[in-house]
Write a sequence for this structure.
């Protein structure tokens, strides 16, 4: 299951080109849920209006930057890290920082990889090879872009854009609510399958 956040801004003067962030306090948040069964390419989306709709799993992953096999940030090889932070107790890697010296137009200026052993048991991975190499779980990836070429002189007014992907454990308080959503998905999927079989 995937959960996405939809924010409808109530701020005066908001236009279609205005960026809206997850910590926005002027808008109204609602959520969409995407369910799929492993091995199947079509899933069901529960919209903010509480209606079900079929969606293509591969298209969804690609549109949201979660297609790890194709998305460069999850397998980008920038060689040896420019900086490494080590956990003083475990002696394991916690953060790797890369400066992209051979930056292409679509590549980040810098990339951060965060590791943790505490969630190594989660059956999900951005990149199993990086997990094995660090003897830990790659649980967070951050990429930074600047609006001007890397060769330009750095200045305070350079526009900076940061994007992060992160794996987190589910809050136990939310477990019952998610299980109810899964039950609804199963019922709706069976209804659709029964409808197809009668045709």
């Amino acid at each position: 299951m995937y959960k996405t956040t939809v924010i409808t801004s109530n701020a005066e003067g908001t236009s279609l080109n205005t960026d809206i962030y997850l910590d926005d306090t002027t808008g109204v948040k609602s959520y969409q849920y995407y369910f799929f069964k492993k091995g199947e390419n079509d899933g069901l989306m529960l919209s903010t209006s509480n209606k079900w709709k079929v969606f293509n799993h591969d298209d969804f992953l690609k549109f949201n930057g979660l297609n790890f096999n194709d998305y460069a940030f999850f397998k980008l090889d920038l060689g040896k890290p420019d900086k490494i932070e080590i956990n003083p107790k475990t002696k394991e890697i916690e953060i790797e920082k890369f400066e992209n010296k051979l930056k292409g137009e679509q590549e980040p200026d810098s990339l951060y990889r965060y590791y943790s052993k505490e969630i190594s048991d989660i059956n999900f991975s951005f990149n199993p090879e990086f997990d094995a190499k660090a003897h830990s779980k790659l649980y967070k990836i951050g990429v930074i872009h600047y609006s001007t070429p890397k060769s330009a002189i750095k200045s305070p007014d350079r526009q900076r854009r940061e994007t992060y992907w992160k794996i987190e454990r589910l809050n136990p308080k939310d477990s019952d609510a998610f299980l109810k959503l899964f039950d609804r998905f199963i019922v709706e999927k069976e209804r659709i399958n029964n409808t197809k079989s009668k045709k």
Remarks:
- The longest strand covers residues 137-146.
- The chain has two domains: 1-66, 72-166.
- The chain has a mean pLDDT of 79.
